[in-house]
Amino acid sequence: MSGTGKTAKCVVWDLDHTVWDGVLLEDGQVTLRPGVAETIRTLDERGILHSVASRNDHAAALARLQELGLAEYFLHPQINWGPKSASVRAVAEALNIGLDTIVFVDDQPFERDEVSFAVPQVRCLDAAVVPELADMPELMPRFATEDSRRRREMYRADQARKTAEENFDGAQDEFLAGLGMRFEIAPASESDLQRAEELTVRTNQLNTTGVTYSYEELDAFRASDQHLLLTAALTDRYGAYGTIGLALVETGRPDWHLRLLLMSCRVMSRGVGTVLINHVKRRARDAGARLVADFVPTDRNRMMYVSFKFNGFDEISREDGLVRFAADLSSIPPDPAYLDLRVSAPPPPVPSTPAAPHTEDA
């Protein structure tokens, strides 16, 4: 597979001669190609999502996927007679992921070329490579976390939320108030580190610097008395979003330095984006420190720049692609009233093991 080496987030599958042998509308009872079901299930367990871009009859194709036991794995399937590139774009938009995190699998060179030309960010593969697909580095995230294993389920819950919101007759604040959202902020524990690394690798839109940190680096920050590593999790009446936020603060003097702040794009419309920022601001204020923050502009994270500007951060320098902000801690706005905010205290320090008393040989 060519590409940047970035971990893929979704495989978009053609159907005829790719997922199954034959052409559904010509052959009727098509059968799965060898290894397809196993590959889909393996990638699903790693947190890789699946969708469909197929020129086919929508009802007939979905019915056959249901019969084959695979329909549940495909999110936002695009089964129509339009260009495959348009279908791939629709999947990316529906999942709110970048085109450069999508792998497209199709047996037809024409279809792969059409997608490559229209959306060159997408990695296109011949269906002949399906037996090796699960071994490709871009589809092998370093860790399979609990959030990874539940990713499809969480996206399904997001679909249900979106449908409920579209059908809600009232103001957005009223809808959000009815969700029963609980936002939890806690110091990262060792069990959080795999997910924390995954967040730095996967999250691009709501990410202040785009810096990725390894498990080992995050563990060092977690254990450091000069750093604060915080995680954020969100739950509502539709279920858990999982761990969706991360903040890394260097707690020096006289400044606290916000080195990284990120939030999953899945909570973009939940009105919780500033809650973690406000918490860090309160912690810095209560410690008597000034809070500065790094920001590295990219083509995808402008929303985080806007969040800083609207949340009392003033730009104090800009050099070599790095923007630095200083926060106004004199007036921190309240968190949304519809949110149940729960903040866990940092764990007590681990007592050192006393040395054994020294005794001299008799």
Structural summary, described in words:
The chain is an alpha/beta fold and 362 residues long. The chain is built from twelve helices and 15 strands. It has helices at residues 24-27, 36-45, 58-67, 84-95, 109-118, 146-149, 151-166, 172-177, 193-202, 215-223, 275-286, 302-310; strands at residues 10-13, 20-21, 31-32, 49-55, 78-80, 102-106, 123-126, 181-187, 227-236, 239-251, 255-263, 290-295, 313-319, 322-327, 339-343. It has an eight-stranded mixed beta sheet, with helices on both faces. Strands 5-4-1-6-7 form a five-stranded parallel beta sheet, sandwiched between helices. Strands 2-3 form a two-stranded antiparallel sheet. Helix 11 (275-286) links the parallel strand 11 (255-263) and strand 12 (290-295). Helix 4 (84-95) crosses helix 5 (109-118). The longest helix is centred in the middle third of the chain and has 16 residues, at 151-166. The radius of gyration is 24 Å and the shape is elongated. Residues 348-362 have low confidence and may be disordered.
Distance between the termini: 71 Å
Low-confidence stretches: 348-362
**Which structural class do the helices and strands define?**
alpha/beta
Summarize the helix and strand pattern as letters: EEHEHEHEHEHEHHHEHHEEEHEHEEE
Care to count the β-strands? 15
Count of alpha/pi helices? 12
| Strand order in the largest sheet | 13-14-12-11-10-9-8-15
Gyration radius, in Å? 24 Å
Q: Proportion of β residues?
A: 15-25%
Largest sheet descriptor:
8 strands, mixed
The general outline is elongated
Average of pLDDT: 88
Q: How helical, in percent, are the residues?
A: 25-40%
